Every structure is written in C-alpha cells, then in structure tokens.
Give the backbone structure.
Amino acid sequence: MTLLRRGAPDEGLLDLLEESGRNAERAGRLLSEMLAGFPERSDLARDVLLCEQEGDRITHDIMHRLHASGARPAFDRGEVHALATALDDIVDYTEETADTFGLYGIEAPMEQSEQLADVLVRAAAAVASALGTLRSGGELAAHLVEIHELENEGDRLSRDAIASLFTGGVDPMVVIRWKDIFESLEQAIDSCETVAHILEGIALRNGRRGR
Amino acid sequence: MLGHSVVRDSADGPPPLMSAQQGPIRLAVIDSDSGFVRVLVKRLEGVGWEHRTLTSPPRVEDLLAMRLNALVLDLALLGPRAWEYLERVCTSLPGLGVVVCTGQSTVAQRVRGLRLGADDWISKPCHPEEVVARVEAVVRRRKRASARVDTGPMVAGELEIRTDQFQAFAAGHSADLTRREFELLHLLADGQGQVLQREEIYQRVWGYAMARGDRSVDVFVRKVRHKLERHSPDWLYIHTHFGIGYRFQPELKDGAAIESGERLADAALEEPAAAEDPPARVSRP
C-alpha cells in the first residue's frame, strides 16, 4: 500500500505533518523517560507540556495552510484535517498522562504504566515513519500493521492493568488515580491507530493498494 | 470481600504501624445486629474514633491491613468457625485488642474465649458506653505494654532509629525522613535481618493490599537509602533481594560485616549474645 498524491505535492504541508509526527514521538519518549526515572525525573512533565504546546502550534499551521491556500491540496482537506487532529490527540493524551502524575500526587510509578509508555513510544515512532511515506510514496502497509499490533498490545496491557487494580484490598485512591492514568495512556495509543486508519483511507481513496 | 463498611480515615491517610499509634483509636466492629451496630456507631462517632463495621468476618490479612487498635467481635456471627477464627486473629495480630461482644454465653465459653486470646468479654444486651469504655481500657493496657517494650532507640551501625521521635539519625544527623519513610525503615529494621516481601511491606506501611506492579516500596526504599547515605556513606543498611523484597542489615560497604557489638553504640554493647547466635546487627539499648 502506498500513498500517491492526486495533485502537486505541497512540501510545506508535508513538512508540517512530518513535524507533527516527530513531535508526537518525542512526547512519547519524554513520558517514557519520566516514568522510568520517576519521581526523580518528574520534571520532564514540563517538557511534555512544551511538546503539547508545540503540537497545538503545528496543528494550527496545518489548518491555516490547508484552508488559506487557494491551491488544490495533494490530499483531501477533510482527511488532512482529521490526520492533523489525530496527531495532536496523541500529544494531548500523552501530556494529560504526564500532568496527571502531578495533579494526583503520584508517589511512584506502576510497572504497567512503563510498559504502556513503551508501547506508546513504539507506536508514535511507527506513526512518524508512516507519515514519511506521504512524501516518499514508500510502502505504508508494514507501518500500519505495526501500529495496529501495538494498539492491540496497548489494549491488552491496559485492560490487564485496570483489572489488577480491582483485586481485593487495594486502596480506593490508588484505583481512582491509576485507572485514569492507564486510560489516558491507552487513549494516546488509540490515537496512533486513528492516524493509521486515516492514512489507510488516504491510500485507498487514491486507488492504490499495497503490495 | 468485605461486608458493609463505614470508613472514617483521616485526610492524611492511615496512621503509622500499631506500635507507633498516636491518633484516634481505630476500631473494627464485626457484628450483624444492625440495631446494636447503629447505636454503637453513633457513640463511636461521638468520641471521634475511626471505625469500620463489618457484617461478615474479613480475612486476617485484611484485618492486618486495616491497622486497627481494637476489634469488637460477635462470635455468634461466625457459627461453628467462631473459636478457630478468634484464635487465628489473636495469634496473628498480637498487637490488636480483641473484645468479644456477643449474646448469652456459658462460663465455659467465656473462659475459652479469653484463653484463646480475647482481652475482654461483654455479654449482650449491653450499653454502648460500656463497650466503648472496655475497648478504651484494652487499648490503654496495650499501649502501656507497648511503651514498655519500645523504650529506647534501635541502634544499627551508625544508624539510630528513634520511635519516640518518628525519626532516624545517621552518624548523629537527622535523616529527615518523612513519616512513611520512617515507618518503612522501622519495619525493615524490626525484621531483624529477615527478608520482607514487597507485598508485606506495602500492606504494613501503606495499610492496603499492594496493587500488582506498584513500585511504591522500591521508590521509598530508594529515598530512604539516599537520605541515610548522606550522613552515613560508608554503610549499607537496606539490601535488595531481587524479585522478592528487602532486608535490613547494617554492613560496611567494603563488604566487611560488623561483628557483634563493634561500632555499635555503647548501650548496644550490653546486648547479650549467646555463642551460637549470629552477630547482632540491630540492637536496642
């Protein structure tokens, strides 16, 4: 499966989409690093917040470019709009997770949160690679399969983690805090799959199936 | 797991380990007589005790996690398992004051209950004020006994653990431990060189069952180690047993184990040591 454009490539738009992908990947890595070194590295939540603000800026630029330009874009406007929004969601949920640690006064991480953050990093890296095929027209299917598999893994980890909170005798406050964190991590990973679905739609709309 | 319960925990979380209890009395009432429980709870709220009412007997581990001072138990609720349960509770939780409050009983039954470990026996019908007074008396007696046992600091290497100040001193300097850090260190040091599992540490210090994957114990051990190392850098106090938990044993970092009495505080030198005993690591003057 490849992403072939129907018009002349808008290099500026492609730059922004790729930048958005790299930003999502960076946010995921920062969160993963923060959890691995928590609580000593809790300061990284600030860097994740900066990523979130950068993500908003990139999304705004994409929208502006998409609608301000009179030229017919290479891809459907609606699809690019959805793509930019989904990319922004990855960073938003990542930032929400990092912020919750401070907000809820988390004292120590849970192993499952580190595992989910690792899945998020890999999924975001796969998203960034998949976005690169917009420009290169390279093979997309392998990236989509990887993202899908990672989303399944994230789903399994998240369900297992939430179930573990409801075993007998766990502090109800721990349950409340960590259920929220596991869910926001899962949503960040789900957003990666949303990006994959949109990219797949773009590829199919352009009438080219993968090898 | 637990039956209907009413919890009135303070906003700052559960109090410290039983021996260090200083706040209001924490009481559990195991009784299915709703009328009696309602009247008793009203009285408990009046005196400001933290209480929990249960209509079915919890596991002993759950009672441990509640970190109670006292338990009021209606044996009639337990049926044929009553004696076994009472014995298990009294044996497993020696620091817990147990007051049996049940219906009509024979002299033989009351004697049996007290011999199995109950601290007091009240026959229903009874006035809630009397129940409160008897629980208070049981807790008071236990606190006195505990105070006699806990006198004096625990000394290990360059470390002095003072339960009266909720603080540890490394080479004479305060380690500035938070309450939870202190409880963790005190629990480990009290283990007399035994490996304590993470789950057990969490349950004893945090007062709840540990959720799978929770790294709170690891993080707090790291914090305690760091604080002790600031003033006692040559000593290793808390040892990691990977995949299991932690063990407290003071050792010099060059690997030389400390012989009995060596470098311990003068008071600790009075600690008697039988010839076949292992070297004393932790001592109380």
Notes: Chain A has a mean pLDDT of 90.
